[in-house]
């Protein structure tokens, strides 16, 4: 593989070649591709999708993907897909401490732990939320997720992601977006942990800006696509395919990372959340968290997303005469939340980096007793929330926790006690 390099722009038509002259000129599939390569099209949308929504890339590779052995089932006891594999649970708020790193050698595939699910990958609707705990790199092993694209949010440890189109190094504070159906493998330098949103629905895209105008939130140019790179070492690969909610394994006699050149707009990306242009109140009140949306997967109902990816990065708080943390609320959307670093302003002590929480549709939630007391009495002045990064995977459908999540030692069974100190001050102070 060549050295790391990137080209910029989300949704752009990119092109890259690791060997000069490998990209055809004026056509996609000439009778003979240069250097004896094979042309292969990867489509991320139906052929007849509108031009501005059509996702595809042409790959020029040493051997095509069809050269692979038969698949056999592969067990992974902690990986789940779709609402059918979730568990019935009461409408309680749920929170988990960081899960422990494994002792045994565990790569990215074996290290996935599904926390909550909804929808159905075969219906192209819904998401799954996963954690990963990894202490071993994938070597001659690759994952192809035919069910959905994967949005990876590292919390501990840098991920070295090899894709068919090139290399991505992704550190905590950055994210990786890996297209559905494209092979990748994950390398690590040591114990690594993070979060994954597996999106079965419409591909993630940048949200419309509406009254914000042409500037703000995430800029397309800050999303980085890899440049062409290919593996030289000969030898077989295990190809693990996620297909219909199950894992399947086959042996391929060559590396799937053999693409010498490519062009198109279906590509992996990395994005550094430090580039997110946060927008907030400069007068009073706390804006809706939708103002922090980085990427959205729309559904068939306008404004009601299959999934929104929302971040809460460092930012200034300046609102006058306002309760500055998120207010108490019940939401039609279901919210799976994680903390990458620092403190979350609504839960200053109980929510730890690497932990997560689930507040389903119309489950009340908001600042804990400590956060409420402090925010209600503190002298208001411009204040910088720094050294913090929280995020949400927000979806229109109820998320069902998995058996692993409900039985995990990391589940905080007294989570609701964080609100127990919220007294009825009206009853205490009001005299008729």
Overview features:
432 residues, Jelly Rolls, six-stranded antiparallel beta sheet, 3 helices, 28 strands, 4% helix
What do you see in this structure?
By secondary structure, this protein is mainly β. It has 2 domains: about 70-255 and about 270-275, Jelly Rolls (Sandwich), CATH 2.60.120.10; about 275-420, Jelly Rolls (Sandwich). It is about 5% helix and about 35% strand. The chain has helices spanning about 370-375, 405, 425-430, and strands at about 5-10, 15, 40-45, 55-60, 70-75, 95, 110-115, 125-135, 140-145, 150-155, 160-165, 165-170, 175-180, 185-190, 190-200, 225, 235-245, 245-250, 260-265, 270, 295, 305-310, 315, 335-340, 355-360, 385, 390-395, 400. It has a 9-stranded antiparallel beta sheet with strand order 1-16-20-13-10-15-8-7-28. A 6-stranded antiparallel beta sheet has the order 6-25-24-27-22-21, with no helix packed on it. It has a 4-stranded antiparallel beta sheet with strand order 2-19-4-3, with no helix packed on it. A hairpin with a 2-residue loop joins strand 11 (about 160-165) and strand 12 (about 165-170). The termini are far apart. The mean pLDDT is about 95.
């Amino acid at each position: 593989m060549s050295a790391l390099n990137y080209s910029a722009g989300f949704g752009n038509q990119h092109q890259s070649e690791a060997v000069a002259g490998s990209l055809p000129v004026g056509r996609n599939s000439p009778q003979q591709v240069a250097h004896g390569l094979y042309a292969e099209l990867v489509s991320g949308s139906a052929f007849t999708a509108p031009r501005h929504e059509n996702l595809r890339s042409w790959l020029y590779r040493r051997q095509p993907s069809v050269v692979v052995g038969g698949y056999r089932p592969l067990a992974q006891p902690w990986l789940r897909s779709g609402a059918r594999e979730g568990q019935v649970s009461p409408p309680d708020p749920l929170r988990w401490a960081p899960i422990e790193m494994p002792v045994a050698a565990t790569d990215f595939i074996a290290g996935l732990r599904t926390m909550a699910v909804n929808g159905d990958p075969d219906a192209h609707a819904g998401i799954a939320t996963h954690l990963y705990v990894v202490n071993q790199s994938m070597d001659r092993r690759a994952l192809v997720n035919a069910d959905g694209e994967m949005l990876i949010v590292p919390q501990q440890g840098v991920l070295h992601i090899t894709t068919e189109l090139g290399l991505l190094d992704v550190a905590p504070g950055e994210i990786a977006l890996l297209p559905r159906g494209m092979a990748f493998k994950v390398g690590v330098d040591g114990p690594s942990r993070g979060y994954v949103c597996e999106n079965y629905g419409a591909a993630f895209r940048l949200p419309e800006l509406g009254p914000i105008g042409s500037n703000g939130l995430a800029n397309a140019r800050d999303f980085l696509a890899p440049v062409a790179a290919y593996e030289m070492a000969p030898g077989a690969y295990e190809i693990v395919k996620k297909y219909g909610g199950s894992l399947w394994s086959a042996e391929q006699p060559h590396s799937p990372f053999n693409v010498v050149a490519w062009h198109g707009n279906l590509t992996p990306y990395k994005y550094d959340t430090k580039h997110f242009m946060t927008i907030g109140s400069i007068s009073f009140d706390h804006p809706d968290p939708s103002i922090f949306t980085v990427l959205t997967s729309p559904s068939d109902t306008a404004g009601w997303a299959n999934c929104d990816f929302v971040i809460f990065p460092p930012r200034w708080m300046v609102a006058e005469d306002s309760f500055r943390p998120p207010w108490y609320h019940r939401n039609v959307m279901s919210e799976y939340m994680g903390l990458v670093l620092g403190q979350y302003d609504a839960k200053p002590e109980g929510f730890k980096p690497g932990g997560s929480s689930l507040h389903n549709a119309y489950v009340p939630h908001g600042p804990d007793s400590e956060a409420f007391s402090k925010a209600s009495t503190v002298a208001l002045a411009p204040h910088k929330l720094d050294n913090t990064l929280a995020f949400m995977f927000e979806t229109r459908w109820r998320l069902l926790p998995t058996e692993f999540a409900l039985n995990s030692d990391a589940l905080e069974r007294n989570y609701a006690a964080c609100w127990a100190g919220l007294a009825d001050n009206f009853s205490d102070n009001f005299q008729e």
